[in-house]
Predict the 3D structure of the following.
Amino acid sequence: STLSNCFLAVGDFMSSRPSCLIVCSASVEGVSAQSFIHSYTLTSSAFAVHIATPEGKPIHFVKQDENSRRWLNDFNAKTTSQPLILEGVEANRYAALLVPSSPGAVHDLARNQHLGWVINAFMSENKCLCAVGSGVAAFCSPANQPSTDGSWCFQGYCTTGPSVNELVRLPDFAEVPVVVEDFIKDHGGVYSASLPDCVHVSIDRNVVTGQNDASTLCAVQNLILLSNSKQMKR
């Protein structure tokens, strides 16, 4: 809500730590529970973390086990678990942006125009961005808000994301609106991948991407290292 945005602004003023925006899908296809937990836990050690979803809708966590369910129950009891409205987010308030693995991202984040604007702003200022697994679909959104020369802002960047070999195992593969591997190649990006379900992370300048859920820890750790390096140079 607008009121919660105001409270967060006060919190930012009082904190000396840089802020990281974790963007999650609000689609029913959801967000990977374990990827989110790793993402939130690691970034909270280095950043003041805010979570945002389209229209501030609640997150539907998928792939839960007993441990992740217990962690999420505790997390959901905290006020910090309430997402901000993504469409009201101001890019200049954040030093880093992270999208955990989110099967729902292809349905909402990939075509969210405001997210495209935020990502373009991050890229123009060389700020750190990270997306993992199915969450890499969020990086398709700037295609709706082309950069000044009309190109996709990740053109020429080496990135990874779910490979076609991983996606074809999904029962609804034929209905997936965005195939990340194809999108990256079609828009001038350089796509890399390892074997299905193996840890694979790509780092190119200010952009970190992970191929799948298993790559979350490695990807987020590199986001933190990259951000810390940039902070030290200031």
Remarks:
- The radius of gyration is 16 Å.
